[in-house]
Structures are given as structure tokens and as C-alpha cells.
Amino acid sequence: MNTEPLDEGQNSARDNAGRFKPGHGMGRPKGSRNKLNSAVLDQLADLTSPAVAVLRQHLNDGSLKAATYIIDRFTSPERHVAIGTTDPNAVADALAEGLITPSEGARIAGSLKTLKEASDLAELRAKMDELEDLIARMKARS
């Protein structure tokens, strides 16, 4: 990079090292909106009413595709499931009875596995602390 000082007459927006002075940077000001994105959003807003009318017409005609579109777009992909226990068999029973979907069952099973592993680690840590304590007492007796 060329670090020679610039002549004052060359560009007053730059400092002696050729960098832009504060407030003289290139590009859009902070917070300004992209004109292309604004135009696209305006066009989409103009389409909203006709698009909703077409969608409503498809729904009135009994279109399953239109109903699926609305359900997919406006409902949460996740739901809260209360099984009431952490017993893995209860998850399997809820899955078999159709109370939860296979993907919900997999997520619940994964969560239960993680909780079990954390519990097992805590148990192992407690046992290790007991063994260390026992070893320390045995050394103290010797």
C-alpha cells in the first residue's frame, strides 16, 4: 500500500495516508435502504390483495394445495408435547398411539438421552469424588 502523503489539492476527503476521513466514506449511509429491495417490497405489497383473493378462491374451490400452503406458512413447525414422564416407554407409547409424530418422538428421545447422559456423568463424578476421598483417607492412615 502506498503510504506517501497526498497533496492537499488531490482529494480533501482523504487523510495523508490516503484513507477516507471520518464522514467521507464511500457507499450508502448507515441505515439507508437498498433501492432495489425497496422496489421489490413495494411490488410485493401491491400483489398482496390479488394474491390473497386468488388464494381465497382456491380455498373455496377445495384446493388441498392451497390449504397446505396456508398451514405450512402460518402455523408453527413445532408444538409443545406433554407426556408427563421421562420414561422412554411413555414416548414409545405416545408415538404408537399417534399422540406425537415420529419427528417429535425422535426429538424427545434425543432430549431424554442427553438428560440421561448428564445424570450418568453427575453420578460418575460423585463416585469418583468418593474414591478420591477414600484414597486420601487411606494415605493419611499410612
Overview of the molecule:
This protein has 142 residues and is an all-alpha fold. 61% of the residues lie in helices and 0% in strands. It is built from four helices and no strands. The chain has helices spanning 35-60, 64-74, 88-96, 102-141. The chain is flat, with a radius of gyration of 33 Å. The mean pLDDT is 78.
Describe the secondary-structure layout.
Layout: H1 35-60, H2 64-74, H3 88-96, H4 102-141
Helix pairs in contact: 3-4
Shape: flat
Tally of individual helices:
4
Please bin the fraction of helical residues: 55-70%
What value does the Rg take, in angstroms? 33 Å
Q: Main sheet, how many strands, which sense, barrel?
A: none
User: How many beta strands in the DSSP annotation?
Assistant: 0
Give the distance, in angstroms, between the N- and C-terminal Cα atoms. Answer: 72 Å
The low-confidence parts are: none
Mean pLDDT: 78
Q: Find the structural class using helix and strand composition.
A: mainly alpha
Taken as a percent bin, the fraction of beta residues is under 5%
State the order of secondary-structure elements, H for helix, E for strand.
HHHH
In a few lines, what is going on in this structure?
The protein is mainly α and 142 residues long. The protein contains four helices and no strands.
Q: What key attributes describe this structure?
A:
single chain, 142 residues, mainly alpha, 4 helices
